[in-house]
């Protein structure tokens, strides 16, 4: 297991699914963690259970981000890891998506992720010993193979992939020891997938049946990839993408 015992982390969307699994995993690996979520009741409950700090946060509120990173630095003395995990689906095709749905989905999935990267880099630059840290952004296999039923989700997650690369190269060129990588989960048993199932009954079973591993992912399996990228085990990985999809995007159509 990666050793994160000298690390401090912020995990957004920590109240559920992949964020909750990441909270547990980074804690088990030794990190001090500030979990955040728009769902204050469940987020605070889970953080207390795990032994993490909690702050209520709407990641789309870009003005709040510097306060969130400042809180982590205030609590722990430095910021080493940011996991930009919070995300939302919208379930609208190109013909029925409204401006409001489009704007809110983008505000959470891409603007929130950008603002998190910006605030984290400012905090990581001030770390004792010089600029250092690891940012992990969460995209989706929907950023690589589109769902016609959710144009805003797919396209905003596509933007997350290139955002990560731009952040990674900027930090490298500036000489900061700050890496930025993307984890790309496939269909994973969480709240987002349950929301999609409500709109498309039978979706989960259908997706599991077409998966080469014949099942959905467990959030802990995505959290393991996040923990690896957050650790010092992969200093030459930046701007990279790690697929955690059970082989779903690797299979040739028809097989
Ligand atoms: N589950 C999947 O199949 C799957 C696949 C690919 C990518 N992802 C991505 O994984 C990430 C985590 O999603 P999940 O599957 O664990 O879903 P989830 O619904 O279980 O968890 C999402 C969490 O984000 C929080 N959240 C939503 N909007 C927020 C906001 N504006 N500010 C702060 N917190 C907010 C929710 O309260 C919730 O706790 C998302 O970015 C999602 O797009 C999930």
The CATH homologous superfamily is termed NAD(P)-binding Rossmann-like Domain
CATH topology grouping: Rossmann fold
Strand-residue fraction?
Answer: 15-25%
Number of helices: 8
Radius of gyration: 17 Å
Question: How would you describe the overall organization of this protein?
Answer:
This protein is 45% helix and 15% strand. It is an alpha/beta fold and 255 residues long. The chain has one domain: NAD(P)-binding Rossmann-like Domain (Rossmann fold). Helix 1 crosses helix 8, helix 3 runs parallel beside helix 4 and helix 4 packs parallel to helix 5. It is globular. Belongs to the short-chain dehydrogenases/reductases (SDR) family.
Summarize the topology.
Blueprint: E1 8-12, H1 17-28, E2 32-37, H2 40-50, E3 53-56, H3 65-76, E4 81-84, H4 99-125, E5 132-138, H5 151-174, E6 177-185, H6 191-199, H7 203-210, H8 219-230, E7 241-244
Parallel strand pairs: 1-2, 1-4, 2-3, 4-5, 5-6, 6-7
The structure holds nicotinamide-adenine-dinucleotide.
Residues 12-13, 15-19, 37-39, 57-60, 85-88, 108, 138, 140, 185, 187-188, 190-193 line the site of nicotinamide-adenine-dinucleotide.
Could you give a short description of this structure?
It comes from Erythrobacter ani. The protein is an alpha/beta fold.
Notable characteristics:
about 260 residues, alpha/beta, Rossmann fold, seven-stranded parallel beta sheet, 8 helices, about 45% helix, binds nicotinamide-adenine-dinucleotide
């Amino acid at each position: 297991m990666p050793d994160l015992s000298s690390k401090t982390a912020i995990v957004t969307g920590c109240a559920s699914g992949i964020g909750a699994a990441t909270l547990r995993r980074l804690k088990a690996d030794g990190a001090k963690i500030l979990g955040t979520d728009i769902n204050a009741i469940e987020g605070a409950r889970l953080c207390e259970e795990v032994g993490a700090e909690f702050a209520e946060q709407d990641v789309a509120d870009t003005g709040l981000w510097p306060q969130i990173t400042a809180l982590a630095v205030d609590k722990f003395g430095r910021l080493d890891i940011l996991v930009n995990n919070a995300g939302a689906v919208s379930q609208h095709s190109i013909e029925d998506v409204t401006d409001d749905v489009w704007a809110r989905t983008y505000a959470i999935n891409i603007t929130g992720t950008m603002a998190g990267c910006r605030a984290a880099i400012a905090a990581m630059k001030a770390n004792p010993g010089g600029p250092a840290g690891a940012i992990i952004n969460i995209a989706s296999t929907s950023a690589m193979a589109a769902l016609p039923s959710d144009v805003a989700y797919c396209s905003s997650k596509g933007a997350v992939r290139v955002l990560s690369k731009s952040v990674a190269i900027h930090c490298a060129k500036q000489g900061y020891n700050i890496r930025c990588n993307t984890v790309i989960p496939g269909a994973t048993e969480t709240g987002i997938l349950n929301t999609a199932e409500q709109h498309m009954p039978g979706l989960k079973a259908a997706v599991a049946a077409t998966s080469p591993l014949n099942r959905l992912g467990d959030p802990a399996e995505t959290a393991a990839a996040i923990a690896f990228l957050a650790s010092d085990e992969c200093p030459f990985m930046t701007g990279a993408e790690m697929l955690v999809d059970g082989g779903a995007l690797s299979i040739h159509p028809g097989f």
